[in-house]
C-alpha cells in the first residue's frame, strides 16, 4: 500500500495521522458552501448536529484508508501499531485540552466514561450523588442503578429553575452543596461514623434544553466544598473554545469526539488527573494487556484502556483527522465564532417568526448559549408529549420539510433545540421556524 | 419497516485456497494464518455496508432514531434463528464478547461465600474480570479448574464433574453455616482461545445443571466455526459469541444470548441505558430494551452480520466452508508437525479438539520458559520480516503455535512458516 511500506512505526504513524487527503483541505466560506465538506444528503438540512454529529468527507476518507490498511494485515496493526496510534491520538486530544497525555484515555461513549467513573467509587450509604434535574436520561439511569440496593449512596437533585443567570446558578449550587455537607456532618456526629462523600455530576452543556453551564466555576465550588466533580462534557469538545482542564482541574471529565469535533462515532475521551488514577481500579472492562511496541511501559491507568476486547480501532484514531481538519479549514476560534453567532442570531430570528421566546439568561445576553439555542414552539402546553406526537414531529420535519431539530417539553412548555454548524446559515433557521409553525398547526388541529 | 438488503452475486465464488484472497483485502505479500484473533472483513461485505454508512451520514437523526433500530431488529431475528435460540428476544448485540461476559458477570448480585470459577485456559481478560469480582466486596471466592493438554474430552468431562462436586461440598458447608445457599457461577469456553481447542462444552453445561451451577459460556470463537449451533437444545444459562471473528462481520459485532428464564438476572447493560428500569419497578424482563441503545456507537457492524451470512451462503454455506477449513487445519497441522519434528496438541485420533484452529509445538528446548520477549520476537521476525503470522502461546511447559485455517488457506501456507531453531547447546532463555 503506497505510503505505508515504512519499517518504523513512528514513520508509519506520520503517514497515517496525516494522509494526503487532509493536507489538501483548504478553508471555505462557512455556510451553504461548506456543505460540500460533509456527507449530508443534498436535500436535507441538518439543524440537529448536537445529537449525532456529522463526519466530514475528508475524515471519513482518511478513516477508510486506515481501515484498508488494517485489513491488509490485522495482526501487524493490532499487535504492533495500534497502541502507538492510540498514544498519538491521546496526545492530540491532550494538547487540545491543555493536559498531560497520560491523563486521557478513550472510551466508547460518554455514557461509558461516566459509568466507568461512577462504578469505580467505593460507595457507602452516607454518600450523596448530586445531579441536576435536566441530567441526560442515560446518566440518570446510571445514577439510579448505582443507588439501588442496601449499602448504596443517596441521590440528591439540584433543581435548575431556568432562565437563570450564571451567577444565580452558582449561588444556588453552592447553597445546595453546603446544605448537603451540613446533613452529612450531622449524621456523622450522631452515628459516630466517617462522614460521607459528595460526588457531583456536572454537565458542561446540558442536553434538553441545551444550556451552557458555568461548569468551570461549579468545579471550583465543588473543590472548596470538599465535593468531587464528575463532569459530563459530552457537548464540549469542539463547541467550547479554550478548554483548559489543567486550570479547571475537575476530578473526572468525559467528552464526545463525535458530537461537535467531527470524529467518527464511538470516540469519547475520559480525562482523569493523576491524583485520581489509582481509584480507577478497573476500566469497567478489565484491559487485556497487549505488548507496548515502543517498549515504554505506560501507566497502569492508561494500560487498562488500550484494549477492552476487539473493537473497531478507527473511531479513536479519527479524532486526529478531525482536529487536523478543523485546523485546516480555519481553526477552533473561527469555527466556534461562526457557530455561536449563528445560534444566537438564528434563535432570535426563529422567535421573531414564531412569535415566541428564546431560552436565555434573564439579561438576554446569550450567556447560556453555546452553539445550540432553545426556542419556544407555538404549541400549547395542553398538548402533552407522547410517542405519537414525537413521531408526527419527526415525520413532518423529515418528509415534508426535509430538515430536523429536536422538539421536547420542559417546564411545561414546548421547545426546539437547534444546532448551528459551519454548514448552516440564517436561512436554515428561518425555514425551520416556518416548518415548525406548520407542524405545530397540524398537531393542534388533530387535537 | 426497513430491512437489510440480501446480497446477490453475479458470478460464482472463486475456489477455496489462494484464489479466495481476491475476496479479502490482504496485503498481497502477507499470509494471514491468525484469523482466530481479529477476523477479517471480506471485500464484498465491506462494499455491501457502504450504503448503510452513507445513510448514517446523509441523515444522522433519521438513521439513528429510526432506520438503524429497524435494521438491527431485522438482523437480530436472523441471528437468533442462526444460533437456534427459541426467541428473537433472547438475543441482543454487544460490541464484543468481553463486553457481553463482563455485563453478565457483573449483573449477578454477589454475596459472601459465592463461588465464581473459570479455567486456567479461560481468556485472560475474562479470568481477570472474575478475579476483580472476587477482589471487591463482598469478595466471592475465585476458583480455577485446570485443563492441561494433552488430554481428551472424556477426561475433561470426568474432571469437570469431580471439580463441581467438590465445589458443591464446599457450598454445602457454607450453607450450613450461613443458613442460606450460596451460588456457583462457572465460566466455560466453548472453544478455548489458546490453545485453539473445542471443548465438550455442551456436556459441561449439562453437568452444571446437574450440580446446580450457573453456566456462562464464552463462545467467542463459535459462530462461523462450530456447525449447527442449537442453543435451545444446549440450553446454557448465558452465551456470548463474536461475529467479527469467524463469521466475517465487521468489528465490532457480537451476540449476547440470555434465555427468557434468566433475563431477570440482567440488572443493567454497560453503560446503563435510558431504558433501564429499577428492578423493583419491573413488571417483566428489561433485557432487549436495555441493549437497543448503549451510547451513540457505530451500528453498521451489527448490520454487517447479515451481509456476512449472505456472503457465506454464496461461498457454499456453513458446512462447505467449515469442511474445507477443518481439512486444511488437520492436514496442515500434521504436515507442520512433521517438518518441525514436533506434535499437534490434539492427540485424539478423531481430532475432537480441532475445528479450524490447529496447535503445533514449537521445537524449543524443554528449558525454554514462558517469556513475553519470545512472543515479541515471533512478532518481529514473522509478522514484519517474513510476512506470515500465526499466534504463539505457552502451555503446560511448551511453546506452541496456533494456526487458523480459513477459506484462503492452503496447506502450503503452513509450510512457509519459518522457525529459526536455536543452535544445539544454546543457553536457555537466550534472546534471539
Automatic annotation (TrEMBL), chain A:
SUPFAM superfamilies linked: PLP-dependent transferases (SSF53383)
Domain Aminotransferase class V: 197-274
Name assigned to this protein: Pyridoxal phosphate-dependent transferase
Record flagged with keyword Transferase: yes
One Pfam family cited in the UniProt record for this chain: Aminotran_5
UniProt GO molecular function: transferase activity
Source organism of the structure: Lentinula detonsa
Gene3D superfamilies: Type I PLP-dependent aspartate aminotransferase-like (Major domain)
InterPro entries noted in UniProt: Aminotrans_V_dom, PyrdxlP-dep_Trfase, PyrdxlP-dep_Trfase_major
Alphabetized UniProt keyword annotations: Pyridoxal phosphate, Transferase
UniProtKB/TrEMBL annotation, chain B:
InterPro entries: Aminotrans_V_dom, PyrdxlP-dep_Trfase, PyrdxlP-dep_Trfase_major
Domain of life of the source: Eukaryota
Keyword field: Pyridoxal phosphate, Transferase
The keyword Transferase appears for this protein: yes
Recorded GO MF terms: transferase activity
One Pfam match: Aminotran_5
Domain (Aminotransferase class V) ranges: 41-126, 177-349
PANTHER family in the record: HERCYNYLCYSTEINE SULFOXIDE LYASE, L-CYSTEINE DESULFHYDRASE
Protein name as annotated: Pyridoxal phosphate-dependent transferase
Species the sequence originates in: Lentinula detonsa
Amino acid at each position: 500500500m503506497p505510503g505505508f511500506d515504512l519499517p518504523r512505526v513512528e514513520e508509519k504513524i506520520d503517514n497515517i495521522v496525516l494522509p494526503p487527503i487532509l493536507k489538501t483541505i483548504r478553508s471555505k466560506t462557512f455556510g451553504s458552501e461548506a456543505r460540500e465538506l460533509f456527507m449530508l444528503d443534498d436535500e436535507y438540512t441538518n439543524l440537529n448536529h448536537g445529537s449525532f454529529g456529522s463526519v466530514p468527507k475528508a475524515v471519513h476518507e482518511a478513516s477508510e484508508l486506515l481501515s484498508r490498511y488494517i485489513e491488509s494485515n490485522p495482526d501487524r496493526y493490532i499487535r504492533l501499531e495500534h497502541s502507538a496510534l492510540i498514544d498519538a491520538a491521546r496526545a492530540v486530544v491532550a494538547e487540545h485540552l491543555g493536559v498531560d497525555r497520560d491523563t486521557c484515555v478513550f472510551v466508547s461513549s460518554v455514557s461509558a466514561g461516566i459509568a466507568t467513573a461512577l462504578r469505580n467509587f467505593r460507595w457507602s450509604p452516607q454518600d450523596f450523588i448530586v445531579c441536576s434535574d435536566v441530567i441526560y436520561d442515560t446518566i440518570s439511569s446510571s445514577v439510579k442503578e448505582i443507588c439501588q440496593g442496601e449499602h448504596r449512596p443517596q441521590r440528591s437533585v439540584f433543581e435548575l429553575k431556568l432562565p437563570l443567570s450564571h451567577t444565580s446558578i452558582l449561588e444556588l449550587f453552592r447553597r445546595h452543596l453546603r446544605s448537603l455537607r451540613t446533613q452529612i456532618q450531622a449524621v456523622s456526629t450522631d452515628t459516630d461514623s466517617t462522614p460521607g462523600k459528595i460526588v457531583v455530576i456536572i454537565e458542561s452543556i446540558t442536553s434538553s434544553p441545551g444550556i451552557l453551564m458555568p461548569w468551570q466555576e461549579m468545579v471550583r465550588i465543588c473543590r472548596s466544598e470538599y465535593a468531587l466533580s464528575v463532569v459530563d462534557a459530552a457537548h464540549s469538545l469542539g463547541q467550547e473554545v479554550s478548554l483548559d482542564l489543567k486550570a479547571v482541574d475537575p476530578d473526572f471529565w468525559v467528552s464526545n469526539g463525535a458530537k461537535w469535533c467531527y470524529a467518527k462515532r464511538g470516540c469519547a475521551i475520559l480525562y482523569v488527573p493523576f491524583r485520581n488514577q489509582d481509584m480507577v481500579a478497573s476500566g469497567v472492562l478489565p484491559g487485556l494487556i497487549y505488548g507496548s511496541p515502543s517498549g515504554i511501559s505506560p501507566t497502569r491507568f492508561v494500560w487498562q484502556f488500550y484494549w477492552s476486547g476487539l473493537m473497531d480501532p478507527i473511531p479513536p484514531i479519527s479524532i486526529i483527522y478531525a482536529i487536523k481538519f478543523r485546523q485546516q479549514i480555519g481553526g477552533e476560534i473561527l469555527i466556534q465564532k461562526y457557530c455561536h453567532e449563528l445560534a444566537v442570531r438564528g434563535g432570535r430570528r426563529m422567535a421573531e417568526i414564531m412569535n415566541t421566546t428564546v431560552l436565555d439568561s434573564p439579561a438576554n445576553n446569550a450567556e447560556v448559549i453555546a452553539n445550540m439555542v432553545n426556542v419556544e414552539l407555538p404549541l400549547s402546553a395542553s398538548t402533552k408529549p407522547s410517542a405519537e406526537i414525537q413521531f408526527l414531529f419527526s415525520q413532518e420535519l423529515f418528509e415534508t420539510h426535509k430538515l430536523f431539530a429536536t422538539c421536547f417539553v420542559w417546564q411545561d412548555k414546548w421547545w426546539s433545540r437547534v444546532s448551528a454548524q459551519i454548514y448552516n446559515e440564517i436561512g436554515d433557521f428561518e425555514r425551520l421556524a416556518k416548518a415548525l409553525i406548520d407542524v405545530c398547526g397540524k398537531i393542534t388541529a388533530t387535537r | 419497516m426497513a430491512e437489510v438488503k440480501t446480497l446477490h452475486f453475479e458470478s460464482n465464488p472463486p475456489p477455496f485456497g489462494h484464489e479466495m484472497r481476491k475476496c479479502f483485502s490482504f496485503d498481497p505479500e502477507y499470509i494471514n494464518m491468525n484469523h482466530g484473533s481479529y477476523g477479517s472483513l471480506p471485500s464484498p461485505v465491506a462494499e455491501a455496508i457502504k450504503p448503510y454508512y452513507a445513510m448514517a451520514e446523509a441523515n444522522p437523526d433519521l438513521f439513528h432514531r429510526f432506520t438503524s433500530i429497524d435494521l438491527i431488529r431485522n438482523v437480530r431475528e436472523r441471528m437468533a434463528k442462526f444460533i437456534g435460540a427459541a426467541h428473537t428476544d433472547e438475543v441482543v448485540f454487544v460490541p464484543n464478547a468481553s463486553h457481553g461476559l463482563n455485563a453478565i458477570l457483573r449483573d449477578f448480585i454477589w454475596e459472601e461465600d459465592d463461588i465464581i470459577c473459570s479455567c486456567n485456559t479461560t481468556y485472560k481478560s475474562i479470568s481477570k474480570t472474575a478475579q476483580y469480582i472476587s477482589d471487591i466486596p463482598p469478595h466471592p471466592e475465585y476458583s480455577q479448574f485446570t485443563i492441561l493438554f494433552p488430554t481428551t474430552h472424556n477426561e475433561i468431562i470426568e474432571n469437570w464433574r469431580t471439580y463441581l462436586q467438590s465445589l458443591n461440598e464446599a457450598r454445602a458447608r457454607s450453607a450450613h453455616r450461613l443458613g442460606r445457599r450460596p451460588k456457583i457461577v462457572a465460566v466455560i469456553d466453548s472453544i478455548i482461545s489458546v490453545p485453539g481447542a473445542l471443548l465438550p462444552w455442551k456436556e459441561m453445561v449439562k453437568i452444571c445443571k446437574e450440580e446446580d451451577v450457573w453456566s456462562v459460556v464464552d463462545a467467542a470463537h463459535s459462530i462461523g466455526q462450530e456447525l449447527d449451533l442449537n442453543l435451545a437444545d444446549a440450553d446454557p444459562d448465558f452465551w456470548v459469541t463474536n461475529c467479527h471473528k469467524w463469521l466475517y462481520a465487521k468489528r465490532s459485532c457480537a451476540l449476547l444470548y440470555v434465555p427468557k428464564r434468566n433475563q431477570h438476572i440482567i440488572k443493567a447493560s454497560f453503560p446503563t441505558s435510558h431504558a433501564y428500569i429499577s428492578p423493583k419497578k419491573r413488571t417483566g424482563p428489561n433485557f432487549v430494551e436495555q441493549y437497543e441503545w448503549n451510547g451513540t456507537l457505530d451500528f453498521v457492524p451489527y448490520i454487517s452480520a447479515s451481509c456476512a451470512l449472505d456472503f457465506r451462503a454464496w461461498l457454499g454455506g456453513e458446512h462447505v466452508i467449515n469442511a474445507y477449513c477443518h481439512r486444511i487445519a488437520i492436514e496442515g497441522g500434521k504436515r507442520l508437525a512433521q517438518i518441525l519434528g514436533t506434535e499437534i496438541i490434539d492427540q485424539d485420533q478423531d481430532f475432537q479438539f480441532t475445528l479450524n484452529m490447529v496447535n503445533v509445538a514449537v521445537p524449543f528446548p524443554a528449558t525454554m520458559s514462558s517469556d513475553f520477549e519470545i512472543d515479541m520476537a515471533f512478532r518481529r521476525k514473522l509478522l514484519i520480516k517474513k510476512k506470515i503470522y500465526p499466534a504463539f502461546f505457552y502451555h503446560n511447559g511448551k511453546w506452541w503455535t496456533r494456526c487458523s485455517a480459513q477459506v484462503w488457506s492452503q496447506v502450503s501456507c503452513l509450510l512457509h512458516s519459518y522457525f529459526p531453531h536455536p543452535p544445539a547447546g544454546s543457553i536457555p532463555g537466550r534472546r534471539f
